[in-house]
Amino acid sequence: MAISDISHRKRFLAEGNVYLPHIAVIEKIIEETPGVINLHFNFKDEKLREEFTFESGQFGEYSVFGIGEATFCISSSPTRLDHLEVAVQKVGKVTNALHRLSVGAEIGFRGPFGNSFPLDFLKGKNLVFVAGGIGLAPLRSLIWNVIDNRDEYENIGIIYGARSPGDLCFKYDLDAWEQDKTVKMTTTIDREAEGWTGKVGFVPRVLEQAAPSARNAVAIVCGPPVMIRFTFPVLEKLGFTPEQMITTLEKRMKCGIGKCGRCNIGDIYVCRDGPVFSYAQIKDFFSSEY
Amino acid sequence: MKKVKKQDISKLLSQWQKEFTVFVPSRETGVVEMVVWDGQDTGFLDWYRNTVIPPKANILPNMEKMFGFSKEDGRYNLELPDSEEQKHLIFGIRPCDARALSITDMVFQDAYEDTYYLNRRKNTLLVGMGCVNPYDSCFCTSLGLGPMEAADVDLMLTDTGDEFLIEEVTDQGKELIAKTEGLEEATRDDEARASEVRDAAYQRVTRKIDTKEIAKRLPPSFENEKFWEKIAAKCISCGICTFLCPTCYCFDINDEVVGGDGARFRNWDSCSFPLYTQMPMENPREEKWRRVRQKVCHKYLFYPRLFDTIACTGCGRCIRLCPVNWDITQTLASLPAEATAGTESRNGD
Predict the structure, then answer these.
(1) Are A44 and A67 in contact (CB under 8 A)?
(2) To probe the interface with B, which of A36, A71, A254 has the most B CB atoms within 10 Å?
(3) Which of B253, B271, B278 sits opposite A254 (nearest CB)?
(4) How do the pLDDT tens digits run along chain A, 290 residues long?
(5) CA-based nearest residue in chain B for residue A263
(6) In which element (H, E) is residue B251 found?
(7) Residues of B with CB below 8 A from A272's CB?
(8) CB pairs under 8 A between A and B
(9) In degrees rounded to 5, what are phi and psi of residue B266?
């Protein structure tokens, strides 16, 4: 895949009627696991295709017209803009509808919304990516972003786990990172499985064994809440400060722009102030409802 | 200052009706709300105290079409509703409800502009009417305004008995008065009488809350699960206090389809409902006490942190109209004093 030159593109801000979606066309559907697909899509409007940019970590509101809208991060990297990608797990009304679509179908997209991973803070650091299941989706946007600007970062380690080999998403990426000599890739599954020769164990355990140094390092953690809850203490034990731990939060959203009200944690609105937060921020949140 | 006889209100509204769609208080539907004036009836002047459905519904309707979509050969065409050119005038909005609009403006202007709300808001002139007869559930005077507060309207009417005194508050209000015929100049005596009416109305609002004390007591009470469980015990999560609250603005977005074509709508939603925050695997506000806490704290703690103002105007609807007599002023008065608050353990999530 060609790396896009986006240096001439301005930061893209949704404007005008921000509730009116852009029409996008599905170009490719990859079945990642039995319940997860990765959709490749592109805007119908040529001008928008030329102008659109986003930052790793940002999300969009995706429409299946007649069914509704749902919120997903953009799972591709802004360094590779010939199309956009979104990973969708089949869990509800809209996600089921997205799973029923075929190549050529039209969807709606609003965004990009939310903040993003702090690239300037990450530059010059050792990066430890920790992901579980479909939590790799937001992280892979950042991982490819970092790999495409490899000189700007120090060591890269990736620890990714899923319940079983069949639940691993983005296997083609895992292979690519495995082969990349500048990346230390560790893949693990929760329990022994036939034919699996890789690591076995929960992500926090594997992280503890790998014991990456906290020196000049930042850990970026995405996955199910239970994984995140057990990963932070391990990182703390390894010497990471709360400022050195970054994650994304997930809440039910509708508008995506801080108005409809439901994604708040105290006075924080995850759609407007997040979804990317440092553990230091989360610890200081007024409410523990995260 | 100008004045108008009550018997001439009909003439006044008729003039305005030429330029505006005029909304007045009505009980036609069974609940008092602001509806389009029929061109004749001014009987509301005799019975109107405040609406049940706040005039926020005229700016943020409880259901509104955001856009329509049609499908042809698998291709979608989106169509925005026609933008409304006709200007609106709300006659008789109470100061609390006008202040509420100033408060919700902050959310709809913040970061991304909400064109639906803001277009309607810019297109609507507010003619306020001071309250001479507040309810005993009203507590506006504790929230930096009063039953005659004029700061959030274009024109303010003060009831002096047989007449209304008209205060021109904004330039838009002045312009309208300049071209309105049949108004008389108010005399010094009229103004003196209006001032007496104002003072008397202010005295009639006897329910009080102590916002300074609340600001002190609410943060340390936040994690006091036992307190919130007690407060929420009788709540039936019906959502009425939020739907009828003039500062509540939460909404849901949904699609409706008939045949192949459809539309996207937004409608009022409420933090009283568990579905509001329900996610596939978890719900941060599954328990009722968390939702009641969210409602109280959004108004008295989070909103002040975000926008430097309490998101409550003391209109009293949530007290008057609650089916189980839940009372926010009692909740706020029963917040534990700082010394005892926060002793409960932080909940485990």
Answers:
(1) no
(2) A254
(3) B253
(4) 455 555 555 566 667 899 999 999 999 999 999 999 999 999 999 999 999 999 999 999 999 999 999 999 999 999 999 999 999 999 999 999 999 999 999 999 999 999 999 999 999 999 999 999 999 999 999 999 999 999 999 999 999 999 999 999 999 999 999 999 999 999 999 999 999 988 999 999 999 999 999 999 999 999 998 899 899 999 999 999 999 999 999 999 999 999 999 999 999 999 999 999 999 999 888 777 76
(5) B277
(6) strand B251-258
(7) 111
(8) 123
(9) -120, 145
At the topology level, CATH places domain A22-113 in: Elongation Factor Tu (Ef-tu); domain 3 (2.40.30)
Q: Which structure tokens are listed for B223?
A: 């994690």
CA distances B95 to B50, B143, B219, Å, are 10, 12, 29
Per the CB < 8 A criterion, the answer to whether B239 and B251 are in contact is no
Given the structure tokens 């994604």, which residue do they identify?
Answer: A263
Q: CA distances (Å), A159 to each of A174, A179, B131, B311, in order?
A: 10, 15, 65, 45
- Specify whether the CB–CB gap between A211 and A239 falls below 8 A: no
Q: Could you list the residue range(s) of the whole structural domain that residue B138 is in?
A: 2-60+70-204
Q: Across the interface, do B219 and A267 touch by the CB < 8 Å criterion? A: no
ipTM of the complex: 0.90
Residue numbers in B near A65 (CB within 8 A) = 69, 71, 76, 255, 262, 264
In this structure, are residues A169 and A38 in contact, taking their beta carbons and an 8 Å threshold? yes
d(CA A28, CA A40): 5
Annotated domain spans of chain A: 22-113, 119-248
Chain B residues close to A35, C-beta within 8 Å: none
Q: What phi and psi values does residue B258 have, to the nearest 5 degrees?
A: -125, 120
Residues on chain A touching B294 (C-beta within 8 angstroms): 264
Assign a CATH topology to domain A119-248: Rossmann fold (3.40.50)
Measure in Å the smallest separation between the Cα of A289 and chain B Cα atoms: 6
Nearest Cβ partner for A67 among B250, B255, B302 = B255
pTM assigned to the model: 0.92
